[in-house]
Amino acid sequence: INEEELTKLYDFDTAFFDLAEQIGRALDNVETTLNDEAGLPAAIRNLVTLARQATETFNRRYEVITGSEEK
Description:
By secondary structure, the chain is mostly helical. The chain is 82% helix and 0% strand. The protein contains two helices and no strands.
């Protein structure tokens, strides 16, 4: 692994920690809005969006590790 790849991996790992915090807050928000017909769907959409971002970040990180990323 070269320095550029290591930097990319570090950036992905940092993004994961940030997303983990955001997902934690989003889960708290879902719990808070369980009895709110208007707020709950938005809270769930936000959580789903964050989960997709985490999956995309993981996939991009995997591509860097395996060398299968598009250049």
